[in-house]
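Final report, results section. Input specification for complex C-07:
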Amino acid sequence: MNGHDLCIAITADNPAPPPVIFLSGRTLPKDRVIGLEAGAVDYMTKPFDAKELIARVGVALRTGRRIATLTHDASVDRMTGLLNRAQLDDRLADSVGRAIHVGTNLGCILLDLDHFKSVNDEHGHLTGDDVLREVASRLRRNLRTSDPVFRYGGEEFCVVVEGGDRSGTLFIAEKLLAAIAAEPICGLDVTASAGVALWLQTFTEPSELLEAADAALYEAKRAGRARVTVSELIAAPTAAPA
Ligand code: GH3
Ligand code: MG
Ligand code: MG
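Structure output:
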């Protein structure tokens, strides 16, 4: 292929783009620069030594695995296995961008466990951790893969519902609270409250959606907990009577 051979290191457990090593008959520095600037992780010239090529493939794979591990650790909350807050910020901005571009709805659900401090105080932090893990698992099991769930903070979780209108997002929020309360967790009756906000095209920042969900969550707590409240400030307009 035009003086170049491509050596591609692929592993089944690495879904990231495979690292590319050029093996080329073009030996000039400018050719190496072109190859490396095109995204290759390494550039070898012919004639080549097979053992050196294999060693360089090994280095590329090792580096790729380390990057994959670091990327995973930077995105996933270690205790619950959910996406973390940094991912929420990134993905919410993407979701808002798509909602603006396509003109679709976007729902945001903020969930907070009720009286969770007393779980720690009365049963210990390890039990508290187990409760958080089981809640995370129930949230994941009750959501489509297209509706990502994030660990927002300590005992707070956030779900982004792309295309979610008022009734659809409310339905999901109610379903999640029901799933948490359905069966005792670690022998304890656990409930959560949720605040729902809906994206309106008048918002300027994704953070406004989170602020609105937070205000709704505060309302749900104030109204007695174990319930869903919608941020009335930004509730989607109801259809005008015919
Ligand atoms: P409310 O119903 O008003 O939300 O009351 P709450 O007790 O749930 O809220 P509060 O903010 O008073 O307490 C939250 C508790 O969550 C306190 C904190 O120790 C606990 N928490 C936060 N992160 C973790 C964690 O990773 N593990 C455990 N075990 N507890 C956590
Ligand atoms: Mg909280
Ligand atoms: Mg709480």
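The chain has two domains: 6-75, 85-230. The chain has a mean pLDDT of 90. This concludes the modelling results for the funded period.
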